[in-house]
Amino acid sequence: MVEDSNKTKAELLDTVVRLRRHVRELEETANNTERETSGLTERDTDQLALCDFIRDFFFIVDSAGRIHHVNQVLLDRLRYTREELLGESISKLLPHEWHAATGVMISDVMAGRNDMYTTSLLTKEGISIPVGTAVMVRKWGDRDMLFYLSHDISVHQQKEDALRESEKKYKTLYHIIRLMCDNVPDLIWAKDLEKRFIFVNKAICDRLLNAKDTDEPVGKNDIFFAEREKKGHPDDPQWHTFSEICRDSDSVVMKTKKPQRFDETGNVKGEFLFLDVYKAPMFDEHGEIIGIVGCGRDVTKERYIERELRDSENRYRAIVEDQTELICRFLPDGTLSFVNDAYCRYFGKSREDLIGRSFIPLIPPDDHVIVQQQFASLSAENRVASCEHRVELPDGTIRWMSWTDRAIVDNEGTLIEYQSVGRDITERKHMEEALQRVNEELDRRVKDRTAELSIANEKLCEEIEERKHVQEQLDSQRRNLEEMNVALRILLEKRDENRQVLEEKVLRNVKELVLPYLERLKRYELDCRQKVCLGIVESNLRDIISPFLQNLSPRFVNLSPAEGQVANLIKNGQSTKEIAEVMNLSRKTIETHRKNIRKKIGLTNKKINLITHLMSMK
After folding, report:
1. Is residue 570 one of the residues assigned to a domain?
2. Which residues of 393-538 form beta strands (DSSP E)?
């Protein structure tokens, strides 16, 4: 567009030169006229006729502003006839705003103060045609006349307007781009093939180059600013080290002619800086590389956070992998996203076989409802719950597991995952089942004994009724019978007391003197018949002493067979060392038994001699 503008100006100058040439020819014609009258010579007429062949507007005006001659081009372009213009004021061809200045313009030209104007000529319809006008004062006949030569500059003006509009848009666009680049926190720059900056934004000036403004780096390379920083702090070699580490990345991009990504690090102003950098070659319209463009983001904090997260994750993983409990994470649909080594070992599968698959097939179908209810109870408000259910191992074995499940939610409170920690409770379940069976057997025996007591009570009630009946009949013997009844009650109570003492003694003797040795016999190598006989003996002994358990004090029942044996040896005056040798146990184990015995018979924190107390319990 600039070239078109220059070309139009050159054409205008050429036209002015041609106008001057024509005017000189007219002047020579006028000067050579042989007549001093106001009439035209034949040569003047010929010169005027030649003006009809030029492409520009030509007209002659007198000092009063009246038109004396117009060429054919003017008539054709402005759509006038010659008769409509000759003798008319020049104002008829000029825009309204020029009417008042017409006289001044003519005076200036006559005085030689101005001979070039840019104005417009109006067509008969009032359409404005911009023109560049050259004016000369020359003799025409015997009078000084103004010779006007106007060149149509509408195309030129359109080009100039377009150029001005383009420049305005360019400046606006540049301003917007500059604002955009200077307001982003990322570092943005462009370099030529000599690695000199041709554009930088404010962020790189402030964060990396320490430049006073965005114009200072233009024409300089980053080494210039690095050296300046080092010279400013000669006592601190670590003040600026950034350019030493990353100076070759420009060459890599220029050599490969492909976009590249780099991690560039180093000290800037004494502080460590980590940049995530993208660089790309810059090509012209012919596909030739003319430089590189780059952007960098300060990710120092992010890298520190990433490193801390990695360290934290490694610590967490080490803790999780070292646990004996089964730990897993899974999505709401049951798909496993994490399992620890203990989980893999327990189910006999690799991590690859488990991750990405549901854990539901590991649970027997009958327990699916338990699992569904468990996870339905978890939410953002209730994040932790526990349950127990069975699992099936690859070999078909059914085991019991206790799970503690935690719901994991995002920042909006949406449930995104579950974490479960489980442990095997199969042995505990078996013990609970055995205990349940024992409790059921005890309940049965209690019911049987209660029934027996009820029958005895009924009989006793019948006897009491009979006695009352007899007492009513033998009122005279009431006092004697009451005394006999009191005596009978005392005897019954004494009998019960003696029976209880006997039962306690039998039970204690069996537990202390028989059962421990049966336990020791079990540890010897016995044949099948001996083991059967031993089992029958132990079962019969327990059946014999079981009826006594209802009437014994809990402090005797609670002693284990080993504790009963230790208590019996203590009561017989044996020391801890002697007891350890007899029972083939360590002294520390005997001391533990002694503490448990004191606790179970209620002597904890009491200054009572254990031997004395045991002897008093005969």
Report:
1. no
2. 398-409, 415-424
Which candidate, 292, 278, 260, places its Cα nearest to that of 192? Answer: 292
Asked if residue 554 belongs to a domain, the reply is: no
| Alpha-carbon span 375 to 328, nearest angstrom | 15
Residues of 576-586 as b/e, b for ≥16 C-beta within 10 angstroms?
beebbeebeee
Residues linked to residue 136 through DSSP beta bridges, in sequence order? 147
For 106-174, the DSSP string reads: HHHHHTTS--EEEEEEE-TT--EEEEEEEEEEEEETTEEEEEEEEEE-HHHHHHHHHHHHHHHHHHHHH
Instruction: Report the pLDDT value the prediction gives residue 289, as an integer from 0 to 100.
Output: 93
- Find residue 263's DSSP bridge partners: 276
The tokens describing 31, both together, are: 């000067």
CA distance 212 to 301: 26
> What was the pLDDT predicted at 216?
92
Based on the fold, state whether residues 356 and 269 are members of the same structural domain. no
Write out pLDDT tens, residues 163-196: 888 888 888 888 888 888 889 899 999 999 998 9
- Asked if 191 and 146 sit in the same domain, the reply is no
Q: Domain for residue 571, yes or no?
A: no
Partnered with residue 420 across adjacent β-strands are 328, 405
Could you tell me if 39 and 105 lie in one domain?
A: yes
Q: For residue range 225-241, list pLDDT tens digits in order.
A: 888 988 888 888 888 88
Asked whether the beta carbons of 387 and 415 are under 8 A apart, the reply is no
Count CB neighbours of 181 within 10 A. 20
The number of folded domains in the chain is 3
Q: How far is CA 350 from CA 330, 339, 346, 399, in A?
A: 16, 10, 10, 20
pLDDT confidence of residue 293: 94
Neighbours of 67 (CB within 10 A): 21
Closest CA to 92 of 120, 71, 56: 120
Q: Rounded to 5 degrees, what angle do the CA atoms 476, 482, 484 make?
A: 110
Statement to judge: residues 357 and 252 lie in one domain: no
CA nearest 547: which of 514, 515, 499?
499
Q: Do 113 and 209 reside in the same domain of the chain?
A: no
Instruction: Name the nearest CA neighbour of 298 among 246, 263, 270.
Output: 263
Q: Is the pTM of this model over 0.90?
A: no
Range of the domain at 10: 2-155
How many CB atoms sit inside 10 A of residue 159's CB?
A: 19
- The identity of residue 276, as a single letter, is D
Count the neighbouring beta carbons within 10 Å of the beta carbon of residue 506.
13
The CATH number assigned to the domain holding 27 equals: 3.30.450.20
Q: Is residue 528 in some structural domain?
A: no
pLDDT bin (cut points 50, 70, 90) of residue 475 is: confident
Residues 95 and 142 in one domain: yes
Strand-pairing partners, residue 129, are 121
